[in-house]
Every structure is written in structure tokens, then in C-alpha cells.
Amino acid sequence: MYGIVSALRESNLFKSIDVLNLIDEDSAKLIKIKANGLDGTILYITELHTMDYQKYSYHWQKENGELIIRWDNKPHWKNLKTFPHHRHEKGEVYSSHRVSINDVIKTMKESIK
Description:
The chain is α+β, with helices and mostly antiparallel strands. The chain has one domain. It contains 2 helices and 7 strands, in the order αβββββββα. The protein has helices at 3-11, 101-112, and strands at residues 14-24, 28-37, 42-50, 54-61, 67-72, 86-89, 92-95. Strand 4 (54-61) and strand 5 form a beta hairpin.
């Protein structure tokens, strides 16, 4: 989980990285981040890990709040092959694997080119 901040810094895509919430206990680990991109976009990250549960959301948006892509595992798209993992893009919901910060950074770099 701590590797997220390092990966964001090393990507050179962000002008600021703010850790909004951090819990590091034996029973639960939570990190919430807001990363402001050099291109004016914003990436919100939530990762929660407990002994028997993992929740994640990588929400990338334009400065005006318009969604670019969000990857998450909220269990509400049961018809997808990759349930509960999915992504929201261009008003649609698509199957997706469990993404990592490195996957998100790669997508962002490809999009910015």
C-alpha cells in the first residue's frame, strides 16, 4: 500500500500528492490519496485491506469533475465476467482485472501522449 505514493512520485505525472487518510493497523489498512496531475487532471485513490476484504477505487477525472476512467471493485455489476472488478469509462461499464497503481499510471501516460 505504501508503494502507491512512491509510484505516483516516480511517474513524474503529478504536481502534488496528498494523503487524505491513512490507517495502518493490524486489522485494517486504509489509504486515501488525491494526486493533482501536471495536465490538470485529478486522481483519487482509495485502498482498504482487512484480513478478509479488499476494496479499491482509482478515480481519474478532469479538473471540472468529468470522469475519465474509474476502476473499482464495488460489487454491483454482477453480469460482468470479471465481477466485482470493473471500470467506468465514457458513460459505460466494462470488465476489468484487479488493477494496481502501475496499471493506472501506464494508462494515464498512454492517454496523455
